[in-house]
Amino acid sequence: MPRYFYTAKSLEGETKSGTLEAKDVSQLVQRLRSEGLILIKAILEEEKKPRALRISLPFLGGVPLTEKMMFARNLRVMIAAGLPLPRALRILAGQARAKELKIALDNVAEEIVKGKSFSESLSKHPNVFSEIFQSMVKVGEEAGTLEDVLQILTEQMEREHELKSKVQGAMIYPAIIIAAMIVVGILMMIVVIPQLAATFEELQVELPPTTRFVIAIGNFLARYWYLLPLIVLGLLFLFRLISQTKTGKRAIDAALLKIPIISPIIRKTNSAYAVRTLGSLISSGVPIVRSLEVTAGALGNIYYKEALIDAAEKVRKGAKLSETLKDHQNIYPLLVIQMVEVGEETGQTSDILTKLADFYEEEVTNATKNLSAVIEPVIMLIIGAAIGFFAISMIQPLYSMLGAIK
Fold it and tell me: What is the SS3 assignment for 300?
């Protein structure tokens, strides 16, 4: 049966939106009328979602992590207060700022009213609720500990948000410096280079290859400057396409693990996120194999992902987690393996993983604090090299010209 995204008004004039299954628009009108609503607009979900290739860019939509975090926290409080789950979800839908989250919560509330479980309803919105969220909620429902699970989820997302904020904050300074250098370079190419090129042409000076290269770029930018934004967007789009292919993703992740300054932060961030997520899932009661599979799906780096998938397969066959991780010491530090082994021996794996996550998150904090001091000399070297190349390319013909005059 088709699903419709609808906008309707109540008899009191309140606007409501959501999704409903109906054979056609007429049946949708009847269903809404029985609930005291008047249909304003209805769109088939198949029509609403484009079937063309979708390139998901984080800055073009989606539900922010902070809003998901607030949702989990508020839902826990409402459940603790004894509020029925469908009503709590509708209240939170009304408070949600992200349209995607609002629609998802309305739909989840409707599915629960129809008799479906909370976790089953969440699984219909994988773009909003991650596999970790779904798995932990499912365990909480089955064990009757949904309130505790939501508390763990809230803490998990708070830590994740804090970690991402620290890494992003550390990259702001280098990004601003590099962006300023690129802008100044482009302005020099557009304004200064064509004038020097005209002077060289009048004097009929023989130009070295580097000078001809710089002049060619400068003339192109001066003539077709309006194409520059399209070129930048095209390069970003191409990079996004490449990163979405298996080969491209593997190459990018391998490069990130080898870049001297960036590599330690990437390794510590992935290790912290992996052990934090795994610890949260195990403490919620998710089986170890399923926890490994879910954590693997949540990791961004393909090498960390494949290591946990391999570990899940071996643990399913009876191996210990610490033994399986020894095959991946190139990405998971020895400390992680040793602490996991201690957790298995003492039966406190989730507690040890949580403490280990705290340790690596602190390591990331220290690394990001020192990042600006470490990367500043590198940026200065890059700027110096760029200025040197530009100066040599443009001054060399002038020296040749003066030598010819003498």
Answer: coil
Q: Is the pTM of this model over 0.90?
A: no
**How do the domains of the chain map onto residue ranges?**
3-48, 63-156, 263-364
The single-letter code of the amino acid at 373 is: A
Q: DSSP for 320-355, please give it.
A: -HHHHHGGGTTTS-HHHHHHHHHHHHHT-HHHHHHH
**C-alpha 33: how far from chain center:** 41
Q: Which CATH number fits domain 63-156: 1.10.3720.10, 1.20.81.30, 3.40.1550.10, 3.30.300.30?
A: 1.20.81.30
Residuewise pLDDT in 10s, the chain (406 residues): 666 666 776 766 666 666 777 777 677 777 777 777 776 666 665 444 443 333 333 333 468 888 888 888 898 888 888 888 889 899 988 888 888 889 999 999 998 988 888 888 888 888 888 877 888 888 788 777 888 888 888 887 888 788 778 777 777 877 888 888 888 888 888 888 888 888 777 777 677 888 888 888 888 888 888 888 898 899 889 988 888 888 888 888 888 888 877 788 888 888 888 888 888 888 878 888 888 888 887 787 888 888 888 988 999 888 888 888 888 888 888 888 888 888 888 888 888 888 888 888 888 878 777 776 777 787 888 888 888 888 787 777 777 666 655 5
